[in-house]
Design brief:
This protein is an alpha+beta fold and 336 residues long. The longest helix is centred in the last third of the chain and has 40 residues. It has a four-stranded mixed beta sheet with strand order 5-6-8-7, with helices on one face.
Length: 336
């Protein structure tokens, strides 16, 4: 790290000199224009203005790579921030192409722009200036919350079509989660995304942390929906009432934790965490009731539902803890 002495000129303007090596590296000369961006933590980013950023390209030999191995390779390149990924082999098999198409569907931005028997070129067409991490996390919450609510409704009404719809919605949550992970990595590398001017690196970290439990919440809503889709037994009214009550408590925990995060409301976050005891008591009552059922299949299936409701509440409490940490960090910055 280099230091520069601030000088005053003209009575009202402060100036500093730019490091010569850096200026030469980014081709800055007398008369060049640079972009200055203030961050909430007080740092000032100096970015040389260029007509276009260099395209980041990656080539990968996928010979012999199938299934999950190939999937992980493509996702890793996406998270790393490559604009273009060229997958090459002496011959790309039909099974490999199906995997590539499926992965592109599960990611926001990447599209197959060229395809031959030996090569598949994927380009990320997403404009990062159109995406905000705060909006992406809020979208994750809205989808996962509706998934939870609809999964319980499908369970109650034996609506297999609604259950399948919930299962499919999990893909959208996964896509947003990977996008947020990519955004966070880009910010750590110094990228200037649309909301970095008003969102500190601490807040980026907190929202990235929040995305993880939201992704897991969607997974558990999907598990409940799978039970609803496959069920061929009836649920007693007493059991269903207990499940609905526990589900409502669990969803309220998540909703209030998200509100606490966005509003920096520590008091609400602590109330959310205290709600966990109430939810656990409700889940315990569900399990006690299930033991009285005659159907072993129903006991196992509804036990899975009860466990998922419990886990969703726990993940909501995790978000509440993140919101407390985030609020404390914001308070410290306000003092500075």
């Amino acid at each position: 790290m280099e230091s520069r002495k601030v000088q005053q000129t003209g009575g009202s303007t402060y100036i500093i000199s730019l490091p010569k090596k850096w200026a030469e590296k980014v081709r800055i000369k007398s008369g060049s224009q640079v972009f200055l961006q203030q961050h909430p933590d007080g740092t000032l980013v100096i970015d040389p203005v260029s007509e276009s950023s260099p395209v980041q390209k990656k080539e990968r030999d996928i010979t012999g790579k199938m299934g999950e191995v190939l999937t992980r390779d493509i996702i890793a390149a996406y998270l790393a921030g490559f604009d273009i990924v060229e997958l090459k082999s002496k011959r790309i098999l039909a099974e490999q192409k199906n995997v590539i198409r499926d992965v592109c569907y599960k990611l926001i931005g990447p599209e197959i722009i060229e395809e031959t028997s030996k090569s598949v070129i994927i380009q990320d067409l997403l404009n990062p200036n159109e995406v905000s991490i705060k909006k992406s996390v809020k979208r994750m919450f809205l989808i996962s919350n509706s998934m939870h609510k609809d999964a319980i409704r499908a369970l109650k009404t034996k609506d297999s079509d609604l259950a399948m719809d919930v299962i499919h919605r999990d893909d959208e949550v996964d896509r947003l989660f990977l996008l947020i992970s990519k955004q966070f990595r880009a910010v750590l590398r110094g990228a200037q995304l649309p909301d970095t001017a008003e969102t500190s690196i601490d807040e980026y970290h907190d929202f990235r942390m929040t995305a993880s439990p939201l992704e897991r919440i969607a997974d558990h809503a999907r598990k409940i929906a799978k039970v609803a889709y496959n069920m061929d037994f009836s649920i007693t009214q007493d059991s269903m009432d207990l499940i609905e009550n526990a589900s409502d408590t669990s969803r309220n925990i998540v909703e209030n934790s998200i509100n606490a995060l966005y509003d920096s409301n520590v008091e609400l976050a602590n109330q959310v965490i205290d709600q966990g005891d109430q939810m656990r008591e409700q889940v315990t009552k569900i399990n006690e009731t299930l033991l009285k059922l005659d159907s072993h299949e129903a006991i196992v299936a509804l036990g899975t539902v009860a466990d998922s409701i419990d886990r969703i509440g726990d993940y909501g409490a995790n978000i509440a803890e993140i919101s407390i940490n985030s609020a404390m960090s914001n308070a410290l910055k306000e003092q500075d």
